[in-house]
Specification:
Elements: E1 5-15, E2 33-37, H1 43-54, H2 67-74, E3 79-86, E4 89-99, E5 103-111, H3 120-133, E6 147-153, H4 160-166, E7 170-180
Parallel strand pairs: 5-6
Antiparallel strand pairs: 1-6, 1-7, 2-3, 3-4, 4-5
Helix pairs in contact: 1-2
């Protein structure tokens, strides 16, 4: 039996100076949008965000992680989770991870489907990227950030690359490969799409 595959293109983008970050208009207070750092490592909450945001865009790599794997990852120095809320409800998140040489990766970024297309993503991306640039201010012993990077792929939202470019990220690599076809793990039938 042959395994069905799909062609996936991955784009890697970066900023090499905090001056690269293009700000976005901050939502007014009446919008109820706020972004808060999740300061207490919580495998349950982080797994919820991961599955809620990535369920319809085929985020699969962390699904088999054990509780201990989640905990160990979240407790690493320089790993931060920034959560966007609308009137107290989680709308999306960004995960930052410090890497050697003053590099910070935006490992995960996205919104729950019901919150997409409402101008929350640009604000979260700009705010979270600014937090990547000042990450060393919150973590003793980390080198100051000299580069912020991320990758996105053709399985992610159709506006992902454009959103990153609007915030000042520049493309530095593109790869294409065949991957086994996989059905997104969610959302469940009837959820907002």
């Amino acid at each position: 039996m042959s395994i069905r595959t799909t062609t996936v293109t991955t784009w890697s983008l970066e900023q090499t100076s905090s001056a690269d970050l293009v700000p976005v208009q901050v939502p007014d207070a009446a919008s109820g949008i706020r972004i808060v750092r999740s300061e207490v490592p919580s495998p349950e909450f982080s797994r919820f965000l991961y599955t809620a945001v990535g369920g319809d865009v085929t985020w699969l790599d962390r699904l088999p992680w054990s509780y201990e794997q989640w905990r160990a990852h979240l407790e690493r120095p320089g790993v931060e989770t920034w959560v966007a809320y609308e009137h107290g409800t989680p709308a999306g998140y960004m995960e930052l991870e410090a890497q050697p040489g003053g590099t910070v990766e935006i490992v995960y970024f996205g919104l729950i489907a019901a919150f997409r297309g409402r101008r929350i993503g640009g604000h979260l991306l700009a705010y979270g990227t600014a937090r990547a640039w000042d990450l060393a201010d919150r973590w003793e012993g980390l080198e100051p950030t000299r580069r912020v990077w991320l990758h996105t792929c053709s399985l992610d939202g159709e506006h992902a690359v454009a959103n990153y470019e609007k915030r000042g990220f520049r493309l530095f690599a593109t790869t294409t490969e065949e991957q086994p076809e996989a059905a997104p793990p969610g959302p469940w039938p009837g959820a907002h799409s």
